Amino acid sequence: MELIDTFFNWPVLVRAFPILLRGLANTLLLGCASIVIGSIAGLLVCLARLYGPRPLRTVAILYVDIFRALPILVVLILIYYALPFVGIRLSAFASATIALSMVFAAFTAEVCRAGIESIPRGQFESAAALGLSFWLSMRKVILPQALRVTTAPLTSNCVSVFKDTALASVVAMPDLLKQATDAQALMANPTPLIGAAIIYLAFLWPLVRLVGYLENRSKQQMKG
Hints:
The chain is an all-alpha fold. It has helices at residues 2-7, 10-51, 54-69, 72-82, 92-117, 121-129, 134-164, 176-187, 191-223. The protein contains nine helices and no strands. It is flat and about 70 Å long. The mean pLDDT is 91.
């Protein structure tokens, strides 16, 4: 009974639930914004690495290597706490969005690069023979095929982004984890943290299963 009263206290969970829902809204907004921005940036970095002039390719490679190696927490702290020393002050939400987007872009660039490089060379030559421009070839021929290969790993990276939004609590952004921590302190009971864990599981578990389904479908297509 003591375990239940401490970690699974129903009255405490009911009181904390509206607070957790506000945090969930911020988490979803942060995650979606980071994924959209990071996806666009990652695709541009990928194209720069594959088809840009040598200096631009070098910059793209360095960007991918650095931000795949750096922990998101370090990037977030640098953006939120270090930039004010050079006169740039960003809100907690903006700082978290930029940090998550920069790291997500690096991983997206690598996934997209692998997807584009998996396309047979004949597809590029056929597009060129039809007189399609580079950008039109990418949009109409190459990227749709690469997307089928990269859907599963990109979805997996999106799940990671939503989990990593919890790091935004470090800069006092009222995300789900921060709201749960505040509710825990307010109610002197850790049940809100358990409630937050349940909410994370409820909206991330379907995405995890989706990743598994997409991976299995991709394997079946390759065998077929």
